[in-house]
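Q: For a teaching session next week I want to show students how multiple molecules come together into a single three-dimensional assembly. I've collected the sequence lines for a complex. Could you give me the predicted structure tokens for the whole thing so I can convert them for display?
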Amino acid sequence: MNKSLLALAALSLSVPAHADRADLALESDTIAWDFVEGITTEVGPRMPGTEQEARGRVWAMQWLRANGFANVADEPFDMPTWVRGVETAEVTAPFAQPMAITALSTTTSTGPEGLEAEVVYFPTYADLQAAEEGSLAGKIAFVSHDMRRAQDGSHYGFAGPARWMAPSLAASKGAMATVIRSVGTDSHRVPHTGTTTFAEGVKPTPAGALSNPDADTLERMFARAEGQPIRMKLVMTPRDLGMTRSGNVVGEITGRDPSLPPVLLACHLDSWDLGTGAIDDGAGCGIIAAAAKHVAAQGQPLRTIRVLFAGAEETGLWGSKAYSEAHLDEPIYVGLESDFGADRIWRFETNFTASDSALYAELAASVARFGVAPTRIAATGGADLNLVRDQKGPLIDLQQDGTRYFDLHHTADDTLDKIDPVQLRQNVAVWTAVVGVLANRAEPIVLSSGN
Amino acid sequence: MNKSLLALAALSLSVPAHADRADLALESDTIAWDFVEGITTEVGPRMPGTEQEARGRVWAMQWLRANGFANVADEPFDMPTWVRGVETAEVTAPFAQPMAITALSTTTSTGPEGLEAEVVYFPTYADLQAAEEGSLAGKIAFVSHDMRRAQDGSHYGFAGPARWMAPSLAASKGAMATVIRSVGTDSHRVPHTGTTTFAEGVKPTPAGALSNPDADTLERMFARAEGQPIRMKLVMTPRDLGMTRSGNVVGEITGRDPSLPPVLLACHLDSWDLGTGAIDDGAGCGIIAAAAKHVAAQGQPLRTIRVLFAGAEETGLWGSKAYSEAHLDEPIYVGLESDFGADRIWRFETNFTASDSALYAELAASVARFGVAPTRIAATGGADLNLVRDQKGPLIDLQQDGTRYFDLHHTADDTLDKIDPVQLRQNVAVWTAVVGVLANRAEPIVLSSGN
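A: Of course. Below is the structure for the complete assembly, covering every listed component.
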């Protein structure tokens, strides 16, 4: 530990202002749970651009108003919408059996009759990269690149290319379809969906993710087939609906001085269709709204606190982009996002750690008693903070424990029962402490000139 | 602990005969894994009465012959076959969202258009019992009776009636369909299938099990609906195929004295269609076959060891019944079954604990070093031991740890990755020790006159 971190550790021992309400949140917050329990029960899945997402916005606006937020609004935008159809997979030879699969957006349909072809096995994305051009003509590529647990979620970056890029790469080498091992750390028959992107000039194909147990089985088939070709039949019939309407829901706790730039707290309201959007990201919206309410409860803050429940994050950050376009000339004081589940916050990062060390130290002190450690890593902000990034403004990342996040991420298993109410309250406590400091601070945040 | 159990404990300290091979199995058995890995990979689901089950028999016979078993045969029988169709459920009002459901055998079809009706909530089976006659006319009954973990699996008996009997009871009170909370202890979106029985005179209806997270959501809907009716649409299209062919696969390690009654080791080869039949019951067949081979490897046993891989257990113990009918006049020395997953054996029971205490003590001593404790509970034998029960013969139950068994039981999640190879080997070791004693014992087993 270097000297400045030791100094921070010493600072942490003094109890900061606004402690009472954060401590209370830790003990007894019910607001975050009420939000996530309510939206998962009364709305359920909220697929971007669909009527279900629109129902989610109506529900969320009603909830914000009932919870005392001002200036509640739905700021509409249009975005390209993809919806799931039928999806089945089966190995047809030599070891016929069905497999659990889910289509990736924005892949194409096999047609209702499906397609059947020989499968070519690539243990990793690098193996697919090494395949010769044209070698996959008329074949289905199987990329089994696997993901491991990491507290900071960093293996998403390591395993993610199998989903983000393999279908395009396989298509460019002639594949008629791609199946990947789910980008996920569980062992359940619930495949992980998500987006994939076809490179310019590459014709999109059908592509889906097998559950991890199914990918294991398919690997074992290759080990047992002794060179016999393994054939698979895929039926996946997703559809593009063209441009449809989504929207960003906003609400505010108005500050004593509305001329000061607001504190922006972000999450996303949409979810994948397979689950009910509990950890991704109903919990995040509940956490930020609960924190805003707790801060308001200890006296009207100096600055306005704005919550942004972004729309259509999952299929391309459409809400984040639309919000930035619409509000680029309205300065934001600082941006924070909650979008990594509901497990405890263990670390925090800013992009002003060196340039505004006084504020950094004050924040570190405010969260130390909740078990949150400072780091030197630079915050980059979450997906729905495009506005603040585009403004080159201050960012804080309150990092949640992601050890089990990718067990559930983008699956049917993203449901309320996966949220631990005790850890959810710890999130609210940390956010309450941090937002309490920020919303009552008059001074601008000093960023280094590099920002 | 009473005196006789203390005496047993003392006996356990002496190392019994046939120890070497059991110890070797504990360290290094690969036979059981080879069986269950092979059948789940090369065959997969083996639904009773279907072509997939028939493929399983062909595969198993080939495996038995390749592994040195004699008298390998498929003993055919006919049984009524039910197969799954489409299955979807959705709440349509007031909180529209899809739910994960699976049909129970041998329920009827809703037709492809499905049915939609108001849902009536019963927290437990007792609440359904208390409902007035005729009160469910035109309604869907929802029975949310929940199951808890138990090492000995005994809560299956406590929670099971919700599946076994609720659809019939609800139908008798007018319900057009029934949905139950899955009889299972997990929290994943993988509903638990199984059989249900309609009482004589009750017209069968559609009936399915919701996954536990979906049952949770439906309960929360009732808490939030403030008296508004909750409506659900069900589409489930299973079919009865009438009588089709199944079969029992048998194989033998022949003994030095074929005139002596054989030791019968049972499991079942069929599985539900949703998973791949790894813990239920590929593992069981692997364990008993591995034990038979290990015993044979230490010298030809006195008695023949017969393995029975029963067919069509899941939908009504058809194989067990057929086997008993066909072989009732052929005495069996003792019967044992493995059909409770692949986790470690922790306890054992016989139906001759008092009447043949010498053998009981010898068996107790043979397994003590593997962490298996004696009990006074009377063995009743597994589902596929009808023959031995019908003969009123000796039974031994080697009880596996069932703590997590009902997380997986009858779900899509019954796949190979759920088997712990270390615990699987402990099973083989215990079976090797016990079968080694039994197959080399000349004396008849003394049963009390009550048997």
